[in-house]
């Protein structure tokens, strides 16, 4: 399942690493793609959206779903 999120507060490689670590903490097999310019994160994972969103929030980044 693919999840797209709008994430605020990302500005550098450290932010990308923090988000990847948060998501992979839930699902080590997840594929995480971060677009710093757009402030968007795409996650391919069987994990529920709510859990992914909560993990990213816990890492310090506000986020919301992007409706495709």
Describe this structure in words.
The chain has helices spanning 13-26, 49-58; strands spanning 2-7, 31-35, 40-44, 63-65. By secondary structure, it is of the alpha+beta class. The chain has one domain: 2-Layer Sandwich (Alpha-Beta Plaits). Helix 1 crosses helix 2.
Indicate the CATH class.
Alpha Beta
State the helical fraction.
Answer: 25-40%
Percentage beta strand: 25-35%
Over all CA atoms, what is the radius of gyration?
A: 10 Å
Q: Give me the secondary-structure category.
A: alpha+beta
The geometry reads as: globular
Low-confidence residue ranges: none
- Taken together, the total number of domains comes to 1
Protein name: Copper chaperone
Pfam families: HMA
Keywords: Metal-binding
GO molecular function, one term: copper ion binding
List the helices and strands and how they pair.
Elements lengths: L1 E6 L5 H14 L4 E5 L4 E5 L4 H10 L4 E3 L3
Antiparallel strand pairs: 1-3, 1-4, 2-3
Helix pairs in contact: 1-2
What's the quick description here?
By secondary structure, the chain is α+β, with helices and mostly antiparallel strands. The chain is built from 2 helices and 4 strands, in the order βαββαβ.
Key terms:
68 residues, alpha+beta, 4-stranded antiparallel sheet, 2 helices
């Amino acid at each position: 399942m693919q999840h797209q999120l709008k994430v605020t507060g990302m500005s550098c490689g450290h932010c990308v690493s923090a988000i990847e670590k948060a998501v992979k903490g839930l699902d080590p097999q997840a594929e995480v793609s971060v677009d710093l310019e757009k402030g968007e994160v795409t996650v391919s994972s069987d994990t529920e959206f709510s859990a992914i969103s909560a993990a990213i929030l816990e890492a310090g980044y506000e986020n919301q779903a992007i409706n495709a």
